[in-house]
Write a structure and sequence with these properties.
Length: 144
C-alpha cells in the first residue's frame, strides 16, 4: 500500500492552483503525492509503472483536478485509469473531483459530487481535503 494519504492528479496547465493546495497540505503535515515535491524519488523510475502504484494505492483519496487540459493529456489519463480501477474495487469514495471547467472525463459520471475550483480558493479546497481526512477544519488553524 502507498505511504500517501492523498494523491493529486492534474494537468501542468493547472499547476499554479494545485501548487497552492499542495503548500497548504504540506504545512498541515498531510502525506500526499505531488510530483514537484517528489522529483528526487521519481528520478530514474519507470514512471508508467510507478504512477499506477501511486494513483491506485493512495491510502485514502485521489484528488483529481478536472479541466480540458486534464482530459487531453496522456499522463493524466493514465493516472485517471489507475485511480478508477481502485474506485471500482473500493465501491466507495476514492476519487474526489475538483473542476476547473465542465469538461467531460471518460468514466467520471456526472452524478459524482465535486468541488468547483472556479468558486473556491486553493486554501479553502485544501481545508476541505483536511476535513475529508477527518481533520478539524484547518482554514483558521495556524500554519506551523
Amino acid at each position: 500500500m502507498s505511504h500517501y494519504e492523498i494523491a493529486l492528479s492534474f494537468a501542468g496547465e493547472d499547476r499554479a492552483y494545485v501548487e497552492m493546495v499542495a503548500r497548504f497540505l504540506q504545512n498541515h503535515n498531510v502525506q500526499f503525492f505531488y510530483d514537484d515535491y517528489r522529483d528526487v524519488d521519481l528520478w530514474g523510475k519507470d514512471l508508467y509503472t510507478h504512477l499506477i502504484e501511486v494513483y491506485s494505492k493512495a491510502e485514502r483519496y485521489v484528488v483529481m483536478f478536472i479541466s480540458r487540459h486534464f482530459a487531453e493529456k496522456v499522463w493524466t489519463n493514465h493516472e485517471r485509469r489507475a485511480a478508477q480501477s481502485r474506485a471500482l474495487i473500493e465501491r466507495g469514495e476514492y476519487i474526489l473531483p475538483v473542476r476547473f471547467d465542465d469538461t467531460v472525463v471518460e468514466g467520471l459520471l456526472p452524478t459524482v459530487g465535486y468541488l468547483d475550483a472556479r468558486r473556491i480558493s486553493p486554501e479553502v479546497l485544501a481545508s476541505k481535503i483536511l476535513e475529508k481526512l477527518g481533520e478539524v477544519s484547518a482554514i483558521n488553524r495556524p500554519i506551523h
